[in-house]
Predict the 3D structure of the following.
Amino acid sequence: MEDKRILYVSSEVVPYLAENEVSLMSYDVPKMINDQGGQIRIFMPRYGNINERRHQLHEVIRLSGMNLVVNDVDMPLIIKVASIPKERIQVYFIDNDEYFKRKATFSDEDGTLYPDNDERAIFFAKGVVETVKKLNWVPDIIHVHGWMTALLPIYMKHYYKDEALFSETKIISSIYSQSFEGNLDIELINKIEFDGIPKDAISELATPNYENILKASINHSDGVIIASDNLSSSLTKFIESSGKPFLPFASKEEFAQQYTSFYKKTL
Protein backbone atom coordinates (compact mmCIF):
# COMPACT_ATOMS: atom_id res chain seq x y z
CA MET A 1 0.00 0.00 0.00
CA GLU A 2 3.02 2.27 -0.34
CA ASP A 3 2.05 5.85 -1.29
CA LYS A 4 -1.68 5.01 -1.38
CA ARG A 5 -3.75 7.64 0.38
CA ILE A 6 -6.34 6.38 2.84
CA LEU A 7 -8.65 8.62 4.84
CA TYR A 8 -9.90 7.02 8.05
CA VAL A 9 -13.08 8.50 9.48
CA SER A 10 -14.13 7.15 12.86
CA SER A 11 -16.55 7.91 15.66
CA GLU A 12 -13.91 6.81 18.22
CA VAL A 13 -10.13 6.37 18.20
CA VAL A 14 -7.68 5.37 20.94
CA PRO A 15 -5.84 6.93 22.73
CA TYR A 16 -8.36 9.79 22.73
CA LEU A 17 -11.31 7.71 23.95
CA ALA A 18 -11.71 4.48 25.90
CA GLU A 19 -10.79 1.17 24.32
CA ASN A 20 -13.57 -0.70 22.53
CA GLU A 21 -13.88 -2.59 19.27
CA VAL A 22 -14.34 0.54 17.13
CA SER A 23 -11.71 2.73 18.80
CA LEU A 24 -9.04 0.01 18.76
CA MET A 25 -9.52 -0.92 15.09
CA SER A 26 -9.63 2.78 14.21
CA TYR A 27 -6.06 2.95 15.54
CA ASP A 28 -4.73 -0.46 14.48
CA VAL A 29 -5.77 -0.27 10.81
CA PRO A 30 -4.29 3.20 10.08
CA LYS A 31 -1.10 2.23 11.94
CA MET A 32 -0.82 -0.89 9.81
CA ILE A 33 -1.11 1.11 6.56
CA ASN A 34 1.22 3.80 7.91
CA ASP A 35 3.81 1.08 8.63
CA GLN A 36 3.43 -0.14 5.03
CA GLY A 37 4.34 3.30 3.69
CA GLY A 38 0.81 4.44 2.94
CA GLN A 39 -0.25 8.07 3.43
CA ILE A 40 -3.04 8.36 5.97
CA ARG A 41 -5.23 10.91 7.70
CA ILE A 42 -7.62 10.19 10.59
CA PHE A 43 -10.74 12.25 11.38
CA MET A 44 -12.96 11.96 14.45
CA PRO A 45 -15.34 14.22 16.43
CA ARG A 46 -13.85 16.38 19.18
CA TYR A 47 -16.14 15.23 22.00
CA GLY A 48 -16.04 17.24 25.23
CA ASN A 49 -14.66 14.28 27.18
CA ILE A 50 -11.40 14.34 25.19
CA ASN A 51 -8.69 15.95 27.30
CA GLU A 52 -7.23 18.61 24.99
CA ARG A 53 -4.31 19.48 27.24
CA ARG A 54 -3.19 15.89 27.82
CA HIS A 55 -3.42 15.01 24.13
CA GLN A 56 -2.06 18.38 22.95
CA LEU A 57 -4.90 19.30 20.63
CA HIS A 58 -4.61 22.68 18.96
CA GLU A 59 -6.85 24.55 16.57
CA VAL A 60 -5.84 24.84 12.93
CA ILE A 61 -6.89 28.38 12.12
CA ARG A 62 -6.45 28.05 8.35
CA LEU A 63 -8.90 25.13 8.27
CA SER A 64 -11.42 26.53 10.75
CA GLY A 65 -13.84 29.36 10.21
CA MET A 66 -16.32 28.10 7.64
CA ASN A 67 -19.99 27.50 8.41
CA LEU A 68 -21.80 24.27 7.55
CA VAL A 69 -25.55 24.24 7.00
CA VAL A 70 -27.43 21.58 8.98
CA ASN A 71 -31.21 21.58 8.55
CA ASP A 72 -31.11 25.20 7.31
CA VAL A 73 -29.02 26.45 10.24
CA ASP A 74 -25.44 27.73 9.92
CA MET A 75 -23.08 25.93 12.29
CA PRO A 76 -19.44 27.06 12.69
CA LEU A 77 -16.77 24.45 11.95
CA ILE A 78 -13.67 24.29 14.16
CA ILE A 79 -10.77 22.01 13.21
CA LYS A 80 -8.25 20.80 15.76
CA VAL A 81 -5.31 18.49 15.29
CA ALA A 82 -3.07 16.26 17.39
CA SER A 83 -0.42 13.60 16.81
CA ILE A 84 -0.57 10.07 18.17
CA PRO A 85 2.58 9.73 20.28
CA LYS A 86 5.45 7.72 18.72
CA GLU A 87 3.49 6.97 15.54
CA ARG A 88 3.79 10.24 13.60
CA ILE A 89 0.10 9.92 12.76
CA GLN A 90 -1.97 13.10 12.64
CA VAL A 91 -5.56 13.06 13.85
CA TYR A 92 -7.98 15.81 12.81
CA PHE A 93 -10.88 16.65 15.13
CA ILE A 94 -14.20 18.04 13.89
CA ASP A 95 -15.51 20.45 16.52
CA ASN A 96 -18.48 22.71 17.15
CA ASP A 97 -19.52 24.11 20.53
CA GLU A 98 -23.20 23.36 19.99
CA TYR A 99 -22.71 19.71 19.00
CA PHE A 100 -19.55 18.49 20.72
CA LYS A 101 -18.81 20.50 23.86
CA ARG A 102 -20.85 18.25 26.21
CA LYS A 103 -18.74 15.90 28.35
CA ALA A 104 -19.74 12.61 26.74
CA THR A 105 -19.86 10.91 23.35
CA PHE A 106 -23.34 9.74 22.33
CA SER A 107 -25.53 9.81 25.46
CA ASP A 108 -26.01 11.57 28.80
CA GLU A 109 -25.17 10.17 32.23
CA ASP A 110 -28.49 8.27 32.26
CA GLY A 111 -27.61 6.53 29.01
CA THR A 112 -30.18 8.51 27.01
CA LEU A 113 -29.07 9.25 23.46
CA TYR A 114 -28.54 12.93 22.73
CA PRO A 115 -31.57 14.13 20.73
CA ASP A 116 -29.35 15.87 18.17
CA ASN A 117 -27.12 12.88 17.38
CA ASP A 118 -28.57 12.90 13.86
CA GLU A 119 -27.48 16.50 13.26
CA ARG A 120 -24.10 15.80 14.83
CA ALA A 121 -23.62 12.99 12.30
CA ILE A 122 -24.59 15.27 9.39
CA PHE A 123 -22.25 18.01 10.63
CA PHE A 124 -19.43 15.51 11.11
CA ALA A 125 -19.82 14.05 7.59
CA LYS A 126 -19.82 17.49 5.95
CA GLY A 127 -17.02 18.73 8.19
CA VAL A 128 -14.72 15.88 7.19
CA VAL A 129 -15.27 16.34 3.46
CA GLU A 130 -14.98 20.14 3.55
CA THR A 131 -11.73 19.90 5.51
CA VAL A 132 -10.24 17.34 3.13
CA LYS A 133 -11.16 19.69 0.26
CA LYS A 134 -9.31 22.53 2.01
CA LEU A 135 -6.30 20.28 2.51
CA ASN A 136 -6.47 19.48 -1.22
CA TRP A 137 -5.58 15.91 -0.28
CA VAL A 138 -7.07 13.29 -2.59
CA PRO A 139 -7.78 9.96 -0.85
CA ASP A 140 -7.72 6.75 -2.85
CA ILE A 141 -9.95 5.17 -0.20
CA ILE A 142 -12.18 6.57 2.53
CA HIS A 143 -12.66 3.95 5.27
CA VAL A 144 -15.39 4.70 7.82
CA HIS A 145 -15.76 3.16 11.29
CA GLY A 146 -18.65 3.49 13.75
CA TRP A 147 -22.29 4.53 13.29
CA MET A 148 -21.58 8.26 13.74
CA THR A 149 -19.75 8.07 10.38
CA ALA A 150 -22.50 6.20 8.54
CA LEU A 151 -23.88 9.25 6.75
CA LEU A 152 -20.57 10.07 5.08
CA PRO A 153 -20.93 7.48 2.27
CA ILE A 154 -24.42 8.85 1.57
CA TYR A 155 -23.18 12.43 1.32
CA MET A 156 -20.20 11.39 -0.82
CA LYS A 157 -22.42 9.62 -3.36
CA HIS A 158 -24.99 12.43 -3.61
CA TYR A 159 -24.12 15.80 -2.06
CA TYR A 160 -20.45 15.66 -3.17
CA LYS A 161 -20.89 13.53 -6.29
CA ASP A 162 -19.68 16.29 -8.61
CA GLU A 163 -16.50 17.07 -6.66
CA ALA A 164 -13.65 16.32 -9.08
CA LEU A 165 -11.30 15.82 -6.13
CA PHE A 166 -13.10 12.59 -5.20
CA SER A 167 -13.92 11.25 -8.67
CA GLU A 168 -11.70 8.18 -8.19
CA THR A 169 -12.15 7.76 -4.43
CA LYS A 170 -13.61 4.47 -3.16
CA ILE A 171 -15.56 4.18 0.09
CA ILE A 172 -15.27 1.22 2.46
CA SER A 173 -17.52 0.81 5.51
CA SER A 174 -16.54 -1.31 8.50
CA ILE A 175 -19.67 -2.65 10.18
CA TYR A 176 -19.54 -3.31 13.93
CA SER A 177 -21.96 -4.82 16.42
CA GLN A 178 -21.42 -1.86 18.81
CA SER A 179 -24.85 -0.22 18.55
CA PHE A 180 -27.41 1.94 20.34
CA GLU A 181 -30.96 1.34 21.53
CA GLY A 182 -33.95 3.06 19.94
CA ASN A 183 -33.97 5.60 17.11
CA LEU A 184 -32.27 8.82 16.20
CA ASP A 185 -34.52 11.81 15.46
CA ILE A 186 -37.34 10.65 13.20
CA GLU A 187 -36.78 13.81 11.11
CA LEU A 188 -33.31 12.62 10.04
CA ILE A 189 -34.52 11.55 6.58
CA ASN A 190 -36.05 15.01 5.99
CA LYS A 191 -32.90 16.78 7.18
CA ILE A 192 -30.84 14.79 4.69
CA GLU A 193 -33.40 15.37 1.94
CA PHE A 194 -33.02 19.12 2.65
CA ASP A 195 -29.49 18.74 1.22
CA GLY A 196 -30.87 17.55 -2.09
CA ILE A 197 -30.45 13.84 -1.43
CA PRO A 198 -33.39 11.88 -2.88
CA LYS A 199 -35.61 10.34 -0.24
CA ASP A 200 -35.91 7.09 -2.20
CA ALA A 201 -32.11 6.67 -1.96
CA ILE A 202 -32.28 6.70 1.84
CA SER A 203 -35.62 5.00 2.44
CA GLU A 204 -34.11 2.90 5.26
CA LEU A 205 -33.75 6.09 7.31
CA ALA A 206 -37.53 6.47 7.66
CA THR A 207 -36.91 4.45 10.84
CA PRO A 208 -33.45 5.66 11.89
CA ASN A 209 -32.36 2.83 14.17
CA TYR A 210 -28.86 1.38 14.31
CA GLU A 211 -29.30 -1.32 11.68
CA ASN A 212 -31.18 0.89 9.21
CA ILE A 213 -28.53 3.63 9.41
CA LEU A 214 -25.85 1.05 8.63
CA LYS A 215 -27.91 -0.44 5.80
CA ALA A 216 -28.14 3.00 4.18
CA SER A 217 -24.38 3.38 4.61
CA ILE A 218 -23.71 -0.05 3.07
CA ASN A 219 -25.88 0.82 0.06
CA HIS A 220 -23.66 3.83 -0.65
CA SER A 221 -20.29 2.08 -0.11
CA ASP A 222 -17.97 0.50 -2.66
CA GLY A 223 -16.89 -2.23 -0.25
CA VAL A 224 -17.90 -3.51 3.19
CA ILE A 225 -15.90 -5.10 6.00
CA ILE A 226 -17.60 -7.19 8.69
CA ALA A 227 -15.62 -5.88 11.65
CA SER A 228 -17.29 -7.79 14.51
CA ASP A 229 -17.31 -11.54 15.00
CA ASN A 230 -20.78 -11.31 16.58
CA LEU A 231 -22.50 -9.06 14.02
CA SER A 232 -26.26 -9.62 13.96
CA SER A 233 -27.51 -12.20 11.48
CA SER A 234 -29.81 -9.62 9.87
CA LEU A 235 -26.95 -7.20 9.11
CA THR A 236 -24.71 -10.06 8.00
CA LYS A 237 -27.37 -11.31 5.57
CA PHE A 238 -27.95 -7.77 4.30
CA ILE A 239 -24.23 -7.37 3.55
CA GLU A 240 -24.01 -10.78 1.87
CA SER A 241 -27.02 -10.03 -0.36
CA SER A 242 -26.10 -6.38 -1.09
CA GLY A 243 -24.02 -7.15 -4.16
CA LYS A 244 -21.16 -5.15 -2.64
CA PRO A 245 -17.67 -6.67 -2.36
CA PHE A 246 -17.30 -7.62 1.31
CA LEU A 247 -14.67 -9.01 3.64
CA PRO A 248 -15.78 -11.48 6.32
CA PHE A 249 -14.59 -10.97 9.88
CA ALA A 250 -10.82 -11.26 10.26
CA SER A 251 -9.16 -11.91 13.60
CA LYS A 252 -6.56 -9.62 15.16
CA GLU A 253 -3.82 -11.91 13.83
CA GLU A 254 -5.20 -11.98 10.29
CA PHE A 255 -6.64 -8.53 9.67
CA ALA A 256 -3.48 -6.82 8.35
CA GLN A 257 -3.05 -9.15 5.40
CA GLN A 258 -6.77 -9.43 4.69
CA TYR A 259 -7.50 -5.67 4.90
CA THR A 260 -4.53 -4.88 2.65
CA SER A 261 -5.70 -7.41 0.08
CA PHE A 262 -9.27 -6.06 0.25
CA TYR A 263 -8.04 -2.48 -0.24
CA LYS A 264 -6.12 -3.52 -3.36
CA LYS A 265 -9.19 -5.27 -4.80
CA THR A 266 -11.36 -2.20 -4.10
CA LEU A 267 -9.02 0.26 -5.83
